[in-house]
Write a structure and sequence with these properties.
This protein has 10 helices and 29 strands. The protein is of the alpha+beta class. GO terms for molecular function: serine-type endopeptidase activity.
């Protein structure tokens, strides 16, 4: 941050001098030995009008609750007040349908926004409305009413390869539209947030704050991904950026247009990525795919005949390298839709299944019946079978008092791994005393005490 501040200051103080001293022809020669140098400019001139700046304003509640241990010093907790604070944010978006005015961006860019303003490359500013959003895939769909829009065509992200050239377009730090280039560094990345549907494209094209929701395009000017996250110290770019594949974006957007929400289909399996040990034990030719550890009774997988011990190697004819990739692809397909799965059976034979996905059930659980201090929290088993999602928390409830928040995930208790509501209930029934809930909150882990 110090280096950035110094740089910004130097630009402000000496910008006019620097600009005046630049030579008119301070660029690469147009040709060498009569051959025109390769340039991205012709392609970008057609594509960049399809990438927009998104400005949001909104309010969120600032709950300044006094922790239980400090109430003696700060007085009656009823005196605590909930204040509303205004926030502003910047991001990017991509026009994917010019006729309908549809713009795709990240959910985290527009989440809780009261007003969403779109700035086109030609300078026009237009208020957008939200068609729908999906926090689990971090995709949101907006719509504007405007003429002469330019859309960016979607590529088939299953066809991209590591080493392909890629270009990132967005508005980092609110500076205005910026283009950076690099290559596809890796495919099928996951693990940034275990509760989300992840199958990221990794790129070394520079992505910074404000690029979220922007375009990752190929050299044909087609969208291969929506820029979403970076991995680096203090949120700075170190050449590790992640984008949501265009095929996942396409599947999610179609559902948002049709339903205003994502109605996910569920396969009904638990598993892990195939590693060297599993591949050796099962005598597999490759350490890729998803090893099925458990098949849920009466699930789509069970109905189709998929069994524990099977290995899923392809989804709709496309090779999948990890279990997270399988989850990501299945998670973007709607309930009632069919998916073709290529599976290596326990006897080593290969079989293809046509599976009709079932609706994701979200039964509500009376949290107070599990523990009195969880009263007021809506609990739901995580779709990946690795914890308990906190879907909502009522204000002034016991659950709010201990510090639970919407979006938290209970992953353990007293250093014991907890994968479901049933396991949590059983543990609390079998034990007494003080319990430390292991909570995953975003990229952080913390403990909350109940007794």
């Amino acid at each position: 941050m110090k280096k950035l501040s110094v740089l910004a200051t130097s630009i402000l103080l000496s910008g006019s001098i620097a600009v005046a001293s630049l030579p008119v022809q301070a660029n690469l020669p147009f040709s060498v030995s009569g051959q025109q140098l390769p340039s991205l400019a012709p392609m970008l001139e057609k594509v960049t009008p399809g990438v927009v700046l998104i400005s949001v304003t909104g309010t969120h509640e600032d709950k300044s609750k006094v922790p239980e241990a400090f109430k003696f010093f700060f007085g009656n907790p009823e005196q605590n007040q909930t204040r509303k604070r205004e926030f502003r944010g910047l991001g990017s978006g991509v026009i994917i349908d010019a006729a309908q005015g549809y713009i795709v961006t990240n959910n985290h860019v527009i989440n809780e926004a009261d007003e969403i303003q779109i700035t086109l490359k030609d300078g026009r500013q237009i208020t957008a409305k939200k068609i729908g959003s999906d926090a689990s895939s971090d995709i949101a769909l907006l719509q504007i009413d405007a003429e002469d829009l330019i859309e960016v065509a979607l590529a088939d992200s299953d066809d991209i390869r590591v080493g392909d050239f890629a270009v990132a377009i967005g508005s980092p730090f609110g500076l205005g539209q910026t283009v950076t280039s690099g290559i596809i560094s890796a495919l099928g990345r996951s693990g940034l947030n275990a509760q989300n549907y992840e199958d990221f494209i990794q790129t070394d094209a520079a992505i910074n704050s404000g690029n979220s929701g922007g375009a990752l395009i190929n050299l044909h000017g087609k969208l291969v991904g929506i820029n979403t996250a970076i991995l680096g110290p203090n949120g700075g770019n170190v050449g590790i950026g992640f984008a949501i594949p265009s095929n996942m974006v396409d599947n999610i957007v179609k559902q948002l247009i049709e339903f205003g929400e994502v109605r996910r289909g569920v396969l009904g399996v638990l598993g892990r990525s195939v590693n060297g040990e599993i591949a050796k034990a099962l005598e597999l030719e490759s350490s890729q795919g998803g090893f099925i550890e458990q098949v849920v009774a009466d699930s789509a997988a069970a109905d189709a005949g998929i069994e524990a011990g099977d290995v899923i190697t392809k989804v709709n004819g496309k090779v999948v390298k990890t279990f997270a990739a399988i989850r990501g692809k299945i998670g973007s397909i709607g309930a009632g839709k069919s998916v073709e799965l290529t599976v290596i059976k326990k006897d080593g034979s290969e079989k293809t299944y046509d599976v009709t996905l079932k609706k994701q059930e979200t039964p509500k659980v009376e949290a107070a019946s599990i523990h009195r201090m969880l009263d007021g929290a809506e609990l739901q088993n995580s779709t990946n079978g690795q914890g308990i999602d906190i879907k909502s928390v009522e204000e002034e409830s016991p659950a709010a008092a201990i510090g639970l928040q919407r979006g938290d995930v209970i992953s353990g208790i007293n250093r014991t791994r907890i994968k479901s509501i049933g396991e949590l209930r059983s543990y609390l029934n079998d034990n007494k005393g003080v319990f430390a809930l292991n909570i995953v909150r975003g990229n952080s882990t913390l403990f909350l005490m109940i007794r």
